[in-house]
Amino acid sequence: MFQSDTPLYEDLLPGGAHWSFVMKRGHILRLIDENGGANVGMLLYNPVSPLERYNMPDTLKAQHTFHLTTGHVLYSDMGRVFCSVVGDSLGWHDTVCGTSNAGLVERKWGRKTYQEAHNDYYRNGLDCFLNELGKYGLGKKDLAANVNWFSKVVTDAEGNLRYVPDHSSAGSHVDLRFEMDTLVVLHTCAHPLAPAGDYPRQPVRYQFFEAAPVAEDDACKTSCPENSRGFANTALYHLMH
User: Fold this and answer.
1) For strand 18-23 and strand 182-187, is the pairing parallel, antiparallel, or unpaired?
2) Which of 39, 55, 139, 165 could, after both became Cys, cross-link 191 (CB 3.0–4.6 A)?
3) What pTM was computed for the model?
4) Residues 241, 57: contact at Cβ < 8 Å?
């Protein structure tokens, strides 16, 4: 999976923060829940043509799943594979609940502005996404349904969504191998269904690795016929670019 177990780079992203970067094809992003209870909201875009972006419905339909774990891939809306989940210590990551906004945060945790608390003010996922997207000339029209890494949401018999507390413990991790150059936009704000209490500020460590070449029998590539076609679409894209 890795060319080397030594990260090319690593850093700690505080809880209630946001960041973005371009992951290069053939590299792995490892996300680590530093203390337990983290949530990482993530969006993906083609940096060359940002109209191509992560497509949650196609990702779920193609792989006949409600959540993400090892063996799954994240599709773009062009039928290509942005990245593959090649390692996962949890087995369940939320794909359907979206992100928090300012009103939700205020109702659950109150209001704390930058003027009052400086860098400890209460952020929300929507504004964090927009702050990062603005750096690339993108905005509200470019938002899409996001992934929530480290969070688990299940349904009851009536179809109601229920957040599962204490799902992720300290040291939990997920490894994403990127099959395309990809603009990654993320935040570490609370999941929108997280229960009220103290405003969550759980940090996440991120590490970059060089990936080993993708084998013909790669588990993500062969897990279903749709994924094989997705990898073929991605290979054609690279052939033409």
Assistant:
1) antiparallel
2) 39
3) 0.95
4) no
- Tell me, rounded to whole angstroms, the distance of Cα 160 from its chain centroid: 23
Q: Looking at the chain, how many residues does it have?
A: 241
For tokens 């690795």, the residue is 209
Cβ 13 vs Cβ 204: under 8 Å? yes
User: Beta partners for 94?
Assistant: 67, 148
d(CA 178, CA 196): 35
Residue with tokens 């990702």: 59
- Which amino acid is located at 213 in the chain? P
Q: Within the chain, where are the H helices?
A: 56-63, 102-109, 114-117, 125-133, 219-222, 225-240
Q: Where are the domains positioned within the chain?
A: 9-240
Residue 4 pLDDT: 78
Q: And the tokens for 159?
A: 């179809």
Separation CA 227–CA 167 (nearest Å) = 28
Best CA proximity match to 78, nearest among 53, 44, 49: 53
Which token pair is 225? 């016929």
Tokens of 239: 């052939």
What is the C-alpha to C-alpha distance for residues 215 and 196, in angstroms, rounded to an integer? Answer: 45
Render pLDDT for 19-78 as a digit per residue (tens, 0 to 9). Answer: 999 999 999 999 999 999 999 999 999 999 999 999 999 999 999 999 999 999 999 999
Q: In whole angstroms, what is the distance from residue 156 CA to residue 224 CA? A: 27
| Cα separation, 53 vs 45, whole angstroms | 4
Residue 75's contacts (CB-CB under 8 Å, 6 or more residues apart) are 54, 55, 58, 59, 62, 81, 82, 230
